[in-house]
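User: Hey, quick favor. My workstation is busy. Could you predict this chain's structure for me?
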Amino acid sequence: MIMHKGNRLTTWLTMGACFISGPAFCEERTYYQGASWTIQMVQGAADSTSGGHTYCEVKTTSFEPRSVAIQFSPAKEAGTYRTIIKLRKLGWQLPVGATAKVKVGTLFKFTSAGQIIEGPPMTFTVESVDTMATLVADYDPNWLTEMGNALINGVFVRTKYSSALSFAFVDGNEPAWNPASFERFEQNISFNAYQQCLSDLSQMAAEPAQGGSAPMSSTSPLKPQAPLDTNASSRPPIVNSLPADQAEPAAPSGTWRFAAQDEDWGATCFVETENGNIKVGFMASPGEHIVGYVEGVFQGETRATWHVDDKPAYVSDGGQSDYFGWHEFDQLPVDLLEQISDGNELAITGMTGERVVVGLAGAIRAVSNFKACLDKPKADSPAASSPAQPN
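Assistant: No problem, here it is.
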């Protein structure tokens, strides 16, 4: 698990020539410069795969004459990203257009019979004499979650023995690559920098001046609605599965609610907000650790960042609950509740670009009641009520 402490990022701008698939002037904004990797936003690079668009890049800095770059550019759906992996080695002299099979990371699954199966290799295409690249979305869809984990963990999590990120070349005689991950002391701030770059990229993509979607039409096929509350704390959840060109004015979201009820395991406290089929909240039994939950956003096993305004963020692994059906995330600290009580918006971002943003209207009172519920002796059974009932 990667936890985010109260670190402040130092960013700066550098101008110069970007040599990716060929020389092209661009603007780079560096979010973090580490011993092994750098995190930067590249704007206006005339790159064959990015098409001149702005993208966030996580790239090796001490792996010469080789380099590994993972690039994230805005996809058609708002807040989601096209992920490209680039491998470069001086002196390769590769024929442009050729393909090569490369096993990225160590991907495996257990079958129902207890057997272990390995993930298939990725297909890289040569785009210049010393560079080849692949689009992650073109990989086997049954293995995309595992691939997302392999990339993020490989860059940001250093194991006891070495980095988990590796590149084994199935064809030819190129030796395997194993670039070092971020140092342990870098993990918190570097992952925070990565999240900040993606957040800034999403914001830029949403602005027409930065190449985002065109302004919304002044006409509508729907009946007129009451004036909308423009306060940030009353906005509805924003989910990345909605394409940017289909955005529409949304009705104000519900406030946060507290409730307590008896579940199969005993007394349980809930605090949540809901809008449509999207639900975000926290639950716990008195004296136990809190668990965050999100419904209507994620699929399968995932890892998500929980971030309130500009406060320190937290990362947690999640999976679908067999009991409730929603996705549950553990490893979340009580400090996050304090941030929610004093914040305007809570953003939850998955490792493959899924994102939901909810307002925090009514959170102060609801969270206060939730914490009081957690402080009750375990023997006390809170009065039963539905989590959907308003406070």
